[in-house]
Design a protein that fits this description.
With 94 residues, this protein is an alpha+beta fold. Helix content is 44%, strand content 20%.
Length: 94
């Protein structure tokens, strides 16, 4: 059984995910996140099992552009930063 891990999610990612259709576990993790102010923006400290963090990251794929979607460099950078944080989590089992 995986234990919950707290990761800081850039505010741009959290804002995007709040408008996305999420699974119940993902939505709950996002809803229970703690806002941490950072200069002009904020981060959302989300505590969830690594699988949920990976699912939330997968929902952020549109921020990289593609399929005619507009690309905003700040959002792309925020997604990359979050991807780096999620990639530090232990890999899931077989």
């Amino acid at each position: 059984m995986e234990l919950p891990v707290a990761l800081d999610m850039p505010g741009k990612i959290a804002d995007f995910l709040r408008t996305a259709e999420l699974e119940p576990a993902e939505q709950t993790a996002l809803d229970h996140g703690m806002t941490v102010r950072r200069g002009q923006g904020y981060t959302l400290r989300v505590s969830a099992v690594p699988a949920v963090h990976r699912q939330l990251l997968a929902c952020c794929q549109p921020l990289d552009g593609g399929e005619g979607a507009p690309v905003f460099p700040a959002q792309r950078k925020a997604r990359r930063e979050h991807e780096n944080r999620v990639s530090t989590l232990a890999p899931t089992g077989p």
